[in-house]
Each structure stands twice: as structure tokens, then as C-alpha cells.
């Protein structure tokens, strides 16, 4: 993967301020289909804001965001919401599982929201547990899971609907380094196996090293850092 051709998702000259605070000052980023991209950079440089713009969560003040040739920044909220639900998966620093639901219900949730019936959705959800080393934890609630287990459940939830793009914002940020490494390995395996494109915000070099490519965000702009692996 080169990232320069067949871009699946692209930010062009994206500018966004929060009131008087500029977060993005002309960010350009192109992610190829099937590519695993790590987004690094200092705290406050605009990494999360860029991810949120690319994922159609935030709308830039100016510039363009394209997904599969479509202008995400021009979509109205219902269309962006549908895009997020049907094509994107999300993992955040703190898994943000619904505490009232069991682990398997959490994983099934995006499928249920997408219109799947409860039985097949739960069956699909359960299929992810052995793959992510979560056997036997299907019926637990988030309060009964360790941080690493909860992040793996969050990963299963993000992947269960087989998204085109997985957006992960500091997916290992709340974990100790060994647990974080294991979660990252599972994440990379899962996205590669499914041919999912992944955009992973991290400030851990070890996490970024698992990606196909790294870019650096500084002062709201993107600079290329490394283009190394050619992908499977
Ligand atoms: N909701 C918000 N309201 C006001 N300012 C915000 C908001 N979100 C982000 N910012 C500001 O925008 C800038 C970029 O923030 P962003 O969260 O994108 O950085 P980041 O690189 O992801 O940082 P970190 O690594 O610390 O998570 C920062 O100056 C931040 O304070």
C-alpha cells in the first residue's frame, strides 16, 4: 500500500477551530484502502480532531473530507450518522461499553442498530470472543472486566459489523504496556484479516510500529513520517 493511490479516505486542507483555539490548520491526509495508518504527534496537536473530521463526527470549518469519493463534510447529520453506523467502527481510549449490557450484547449492538435480528446478531457477536481471547466472558458486564478485556470487547464491537474503516483513538492509552501491546496485536490481526482500513491515533511509538505507515500531526498539520511496509 502506498497511500497515494486509491485513497479510501482523504482530508484536504482541513481547517477547524474550537472558538479561538485553532485545532487543524490545513491538514492533508490520504489513507489507502486496506492500509493501517498510525497518527502520532504531541498532545494538543490536533490528532483526535483530525480523526473526528475524517470519521464524520466533526465538520471542518473549511477544506474537504472524502470517503470513497463522497464529500463527508457536505453531508447532513443524518447521512453522516448513517455512514458512521454502516461503514465505520470506533475504538476509543476508554472502551465506553454500555455498563448495563453484557459483553456480548455490547458487541452485538452495532449489528442490532443496523437492523439485524437479535439471534443472528448475538451469534455473530459471540464468534468474536474466542478470536480475541475473550472466551467465557460473553455474559460479563463492563464492571466485571479488566481494562484489557474491556478494550478487546470494544474492539470486537467495532469490528462485528465489518466496517470499511476502523477509527481508533488511543486504543491502548488506558492500558499497561504489556496489555496494550496484546490489544494492539489483536487489533492489527483483526483488521488485516478483514481487509479493514484503520486510522489509529497514538502517541506510543511501539503501537505505531505495528502500522503500515505513520504520519505526524504538528500544530494542526500533517507531516509524513515513515512509509515502510508494503502490506500483506
Ligand atoms: N471540544 C473542544 N473544545 C475546545 N477546544 C478543543 C476541543 N477539542 C479539542 N480542543 C483543542 O484543540 C486542539 C487540538 O486538540 P486534539 O484533541 O485534537 O489534540 P490531540 O493531538 O488529539 O491531543 P492529545 O494527544 O492530548 O489527545 C487543542 O488545543 C485542544 O485543546
Automatic annotation (TrEMBL):
The keyword Transport applies. Keywords: ATP-binding, Lipoprotein, Nucleotide-binding, Transport. GO terms for molecular function: ATP binding; ATP hydrolysis activity; transmembrane transporter activity. The keyword Nucleotide-binding applies. Pfam families: ABC_tran. SMART domains: AAA. PROSITE patterns: ABC_TRANSPORTER_1, ABC_TRANSPORTER_2. Residues 9-230 form the ABC transporter domain. GO terms for cellular component: plasma membrane. This is Lipoprotein-releasing system ATP-binding protein LolD. It comes from Actinacidiphila cocklensis.
Amino acid at each position: 500500500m502506498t497511500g497515494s493511490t486509491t485513497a479510501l479516505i482523504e482530508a484536504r486542507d482541513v481547517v477547524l477551530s474550537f472558538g479561538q483555539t485553532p485545532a487543524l490548520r490545513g491538514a492533508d491526509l490520504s489513507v489507502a484502502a486496506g492500509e493501517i495508518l498510525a497518527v502520532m504527534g504531541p498532545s494538543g496537536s490536533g490528532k483526535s480532531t483530525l480523526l473526528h473530521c475524517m470519521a464524520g463526527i466533526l465538520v471542518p470549518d473549511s477544506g474537504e473530507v472524502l470517503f470513497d469519493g463522497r464529500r463527508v463534510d457536505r453531508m447532513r447529520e443524518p447521512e453522516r450518522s448513517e455512514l458512521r453506523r454502516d461503514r465505520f467502527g470506533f475504538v476509543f481510549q476508554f472502551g465506553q461499553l454500555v455498563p448495563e449490557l453484557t459483553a456480548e450484547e455490547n458487541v452485538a449492538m452495532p449489528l442490532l442498530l443496523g437492523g439485524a435480528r437479535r439471534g443472528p446478531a448475538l451469534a455473530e457477536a459471540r464468534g468474536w470472543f474466542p478470536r480475541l481471547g475473550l472466551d467465557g466472558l460473553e455474559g460479563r458486564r463492563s464492571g466485571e472486566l479488566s481494562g484489557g478485556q474491556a478494550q478487546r470487547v470494544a474492539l470486537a464491537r467495532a469490528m462485528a459489523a465489518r466496517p470499511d474503516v476502523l477509527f481508533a483513538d488511543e486504543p491502548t492509552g488506558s492500558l499497561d504496556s504489556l496489555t496494550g501491546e496484546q490489544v494492539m496485536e489483536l487489533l492489527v490481526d483483526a483488521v488485516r484479516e478483514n481487509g479493514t482500513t484503520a486510522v489509529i491515533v497514538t502517541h506510543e511509538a511501539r503501537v505505531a510500529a505495528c502500522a503500515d505507515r505513520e504520519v505526524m500531526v504538528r500544530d494542526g498539520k500533517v507531516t509524513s513520517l515513515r512509509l515502510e511496509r508494503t502490506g500483506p
